[in-house]
Write a structure and sequence with these properties.
Elements: H1 2-22, E1 35-42, H2 49-68, E2 76-83, H3 88-100, E3 106-108, H4 113-126, E4 130-132, E5 152-154, H5 159-173, E6 178-184, H6 188-203, E7 207-214, H7 222-230, E8 235-237, H8 242-254, E9 261-263, H9 270-276, E10 284-288, H10 297-310, H11 316-335, H12 340-348, E11 353-355, E12 358-362, E13 368-369, E14 372-378, E15 381-388
Parallel strand pairs: 1-2, 1-3, 3-4, 4-5, 6-7, 6-8, 8-9, 9-10
Antiparallel strand pairs: 10-14, 11-12, 12-13, 14-15
Length: 391
């Protein structure tokens, strides 16, 4: 009996040693592979699908170029693309799946601030760098105690910067001395923009007449717009996403509220023109990350490549996605291997990365220092107006 027990124990020990020698932590999965897996967690369906699709179009063009030129570190980059359906819960699930089951070395996305916040805990817990090219909320990379989230990065400017820049544009460039705000009270994105616009506009000497609210998926804004018209604002600041903004612009013009309407990068979608109509999309301005009218060599080359692949003009989300993939390539090369911890350090040390959306360095809070582009809508066509640099 004792002899049989010893044999069984010996077999168990041998098997455990074998498993211990042959299994690898998830983060080492790329070490012996001829590919580097990268997770794409994007809104490919649902309310803001044009953002997610725009970003992935840009990423996939860049990866095609990168892989066609030999890849990174002698390996091809393999994109594992998953739809988060524009939902926070699904975004969290996708992030967990990519980090634990698909063994990715980095997570790209999501597009919106809310979905990125939902995806971040899994990235932090599994120590996988997450980089968003369009989550503009100020607290994406900083926690509630003011601490930097070690594995979270973004390559877009923050809501605070957009809010500040558009307030300065309204006061200094448009000469507006009073303003009204109409924002989505269910959106962190809109709340951050509203707060910083109001604070800066008032510091400059302007007056905020009122701040009214709506909710995502609302379709009838005539009552609140009628109230706003009665206050005679010189401008209307509407920080929101294109689905509601298109209707707001249309209904405002129908009511005779013909003052300039200002917003941020949530306007950046061809759907805005479809929803509002070309005839009313004038005197509308928003902050963006990129303009195809930029004549720099990088932008001209990107625009040509994008049009050849997709048979359409590139927008800001396409450009942001494109830069994101090359930003990852740059950091992987400096890291020297597809190791998430080393990649995280390389991302944090980025200096003077040159992309089609501009040249930027990553600051101590894992945010880029870069310029903002002001776009003016003219008969429904996004037109480059000017660049505003950080002070």
């Amino acid at each position: 009996m004792k002899k049989n027990l010893l044999v069984i124990l010996s077999l168990i020990l041998t098997l455990s040693l074998f498993v211990g020698c042959t299994s690898k932590p998830a983060n080492d999965a790329n070490a012996d592979s001829d590919t580097i897996k990268v997770g794409l967690n994007y809104e490919l369906s649902g309310a803001v699908a044009t953002y997610g699709q725009g970003l992935t179009d840009g990423i996939e063009l860049a990866l095609e170029e990168i892989n066609g030129s030999g890849g990174v570190l002698g390996k091809q980059i393999e994109a594992v693309k998953v739809d988060n359906k524009s939902e926070d819960t699904e975004s969290a699930n996708v992030s967990t799946r990519l980090a634990t089951r698909d063994n990715v070395v980095a997570l790209l996305g999501p597009a919106t601030s809310g979905n990125t916040k939902a995806a971040s805990p899994a990235a932090m817990q599994n120590k996988i760098p997450l980089i968003s090219a369009s989550a503009t909320a100020d607290d994406i990379t900083i926690d509630s105690n003011g601490n930097v989230r070690e594995y979270i990065f973004k390559t877009c400017f923050s809501d605070s910067f957009q809010g500040v820049m558009m307030a300065e544009f309204a006061f200094n460039d448009l000469g507006s001395k009073n303003a009204a705000i109409l924002s989505d009270n269910t959106s962190d994105y809109a709340k951050g923009l509203s707060k910083n616009f109001q604070e800066t506009f008032e510091e400059l000497g302007g007056t905020i007449l009122t701040e009214e609210a709506y909710q995502a998926k609302d379709t009838d804004f005539k009552a609140v717009l009628t109230n706003l018209k009665g206050l005679n604002p010189e401008i209307l600041f509407v920080p929101g996403y294109y689905e509601e903004v298109g209707l707001i612009v249309r209904q405002a013009r129908e009511l005779g509220l013909n003052v300039p309407i200002l917003g941020a990068d949530g306007y950046e979608s061809p759907k805005l023109t479809e929803i509002a109509g070309k005839d009313v999309l004038n005197d509308v301005y928003y902050s963006s990350h990129y303009s195809p009218m930029d004549d720099s060599e990088e932008v001209v080359k990107f625009n040509q490549s994008f049009k050849e692949k997709y048979s359409k003009e590139a927008d800001a989300f396409n450009a942001l996605g494109y830069d994101l993939a090359y930003f990852l390539k740059d950091a992987l090369e400096r890291a020297g291997e597809a190791d998430p911890a080393k990649l995280k350090d390389a991302l944090a040390e980025t200096k003077d990365f040159k992309g089609v959306t501009g040249t930027f360095s990553i600051d101590e809070n894992h945010n880029p220092v870069k310029s903002v582009t002001v776009i003016e809508m003219k008969d429904g066509v996004p037109t480059f107006l000017k660049k505003l640099d950080p002070k």
